[in-house]
Structure formats: C-alpha cells, structure tokens
Write a sequence for this structure.
C-alpha cells in the first residue's frame, strides 16, 4: 500500500502515534484545572484553535497540494466534519459519564470502528495479530472503565443513570468520528498528499466549523488565568503537536493500527489522574493498564523476520511479493 513502508518507517510511525497518545492522555487532567469551563468550550478551543494552527503551519504545503485535495474533496469534507463533531462528543461524554468512562468508551471502541470502516470501504481483512492486540486493548480499557466507575460510584457524588447512558452514547459517537477522521487522513496521505497538507486541510476546515461553537460557549475561558492557560495548553500541546505527530504516524501505519495504538491514551489518563489529581486506582485498573501495554507490544514488537509490523490488515485476494510480517 502506498505511503506505508516496512521496517523502520513503520516503527517510527508507531512511535509517533504513541507519542501523540501520551499528549492526548493529559487532556482530562488539564481540564480539571478549569472546572467552570463547559465541555463544548473545551472541545472547541482544543480542536478548533489546534486545527487552525495546523492549517497555518501547513499553509504552503496545502496550497501546493490544493489540486489533489480538490480531487478528494469528499474525503476532506468527511474528515473535517468528523474533526468538528469528535471533541464536542468526547468532552461532553467525559462530563456526563465521568473522565474514566468517557475516555475509555471514546478511545477504547475506536479500533473496532476503524476496523469496520476499513473492512466495508477498503475491503481489508483483519489478521490474527491485529485481532489479538485489539482484544487485549479492549479488555484492558474495559477493566479501567469498570474499576474507575465502581470507585467513583462508591463516593458521594454518584452520576445519574440517564447521564451515564447519554455520556456513553456520546462516547460511541466520539469513537466513530475519531475513526472516520483517522481513516480520511490516512486515505489522503496514502493517495499521495503530504501528511502535513492532508492534516492541515482536514483539521483546518474542522477548526473553522468549531469557531461558532467557541464564540457561543468560550467566554468562561477568558474569565480567569487558569481557564485561559488550559485553553492555550489544549490547543498547542495535545491538539497541535499531538496531531502533527499523529499525521506523521498515519503516513506509515493504517488507521486501524493507529487507533489501536492510541489505546495508550486512557492508560496515561488514568495514571495522571492518580499522580496529579489524586484519584485512587483499584487493582483491576492497574491490570487494565498492563493489558493495554501488552496490546501495544503485540503491535510494535518486531516479527521473526526482523521487520516491525506495518499493516495489520491485508487486501483480500492480494498475494504479497514476500512473506507478510503481520502474523496472519
């Protein structure tokens, strides 16, 4: 597949996605420093300003790639709409169902959504290696979810069943849109468009779509230095820097692999909640983190042939020129 090389390039791509996931894992903890700012404002400032910064940083490349981007305008628009919907659903999910449940549902089910998209649209067949990694990661995130939800329900401020259900539903919307914009960006990149130009176009348009939401809900961000600092951090670090890294990663690994590697995010979020916010994580939660790490190891450890896995999916009927390294 064009744009997804073997060996070291795939390893570098995986590391870029993992680094992005670490940055994303800080967002839940950062948001706790601005408790008076609503989830729509947090999502709009994070992805909106972060997306516009990406567009500005990639402006020259985007202009040079404009003819090819216009030829794929449908994919660009799908990615941009998904970019706009994702943060609104994600942060609202965390506010309604809790940070643990919202993060785990949103990120933990994204690999399944990516797999469905690639199977239906690209007609790719999942391999045993990807399936094993996804099962480990989903089991780990489920344990994190159950452990932290049980711990939270033991406190005084339990959430309503209706709020939890709505929050979980919004988490599923976030997972689907995350998978969609990852797929769209990967499709543009592997179609010959430079990763910076593809990400700049998709996230720049998504940022423009989020500006009205930011104008309508963002006033509390300016009411205090802490709110402004959180907004600036969200836009610059996890969203701008994180998605630049994610774009580089998507140039070398499929969207299904990238979304599976990003299962590191809820594990990072849980650890930071313990170390920074002061939450307590039960044994089941730590077990979940270990399973997530095992999931990442399955995807990134070199195979017997000495190459790092680059595609955990194979096109049906395609006979590779050399033995595949995906364990299928």
């Amino acid at each position: 597949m064009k744009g997804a090389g073997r060996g070291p390039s795939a390893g570098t791509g995986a590391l870029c996605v993992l680094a992005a996931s670490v940055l994303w894992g800080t967002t839940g903890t950062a948001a706790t420093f601005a408790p008076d700012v609503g989830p729509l404002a947090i999502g709009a400032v994070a992805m909106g300003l972060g997306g516009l910064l990406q567009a500005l940083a990639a402006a020259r490349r985007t202009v040079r790639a404009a003819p090819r981007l216009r030829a794929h305008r449908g994919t660009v628009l799908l990615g941009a709409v998904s970019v706009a919907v994702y943060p609104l659903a994600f942060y609202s999910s965390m506010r309604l169902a809790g940070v643990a449940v919202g993060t785990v549902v949103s990120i933990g089910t994204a690999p399944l959504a990516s797999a469905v998209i690639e199977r239906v649209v690209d007609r790719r067949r999942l391999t045993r290696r990807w399936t094993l990694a996804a099962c480990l990661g989903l089991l780990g995130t489920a344990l994190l979810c159950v452990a932290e939800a049980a711990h939270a329900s033991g406190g005084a401020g339990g959430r309503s069943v209706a709020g939890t259900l709505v929050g979980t539903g919004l988490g599923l919307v976030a997972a689907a849109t995350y998978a969609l914009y990852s797929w769209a960006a990967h499709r543009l990149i592997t179609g010959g468009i430079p990763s910076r130009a593809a990400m700049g176009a998709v996230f720049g348009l998504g940022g423009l779509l989020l500006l009205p939401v930011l104008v309508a809900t963002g006033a509390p961000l300016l009411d205090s230095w802490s709110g402004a600092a959180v907004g600036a951090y969200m836009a610059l670090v996890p969203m701008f820097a994180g998605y630049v890294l994610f774009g580089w990663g998507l140039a070398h690994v499929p969207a299904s692999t990238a979304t599976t590697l990003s299962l590191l995010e809820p594990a990072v979020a849980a650890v930071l909640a313990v170390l920074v916010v002061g939450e307590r994580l039960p044994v089941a939660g730590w077990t979940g983190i270990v399973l997530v790490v095992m999931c990442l190891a399955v995807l990134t450890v070199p195979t017997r042939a000495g190459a790092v896995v680059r595609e955990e999916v194979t096109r049906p009927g395609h006979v590779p020129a050399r033995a595949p390294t995906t364990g299928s």
Notes: Confidence is low (pLDDT under 50) at residues 1-7, 305-328. The beta strands are 125-126, 313-314.
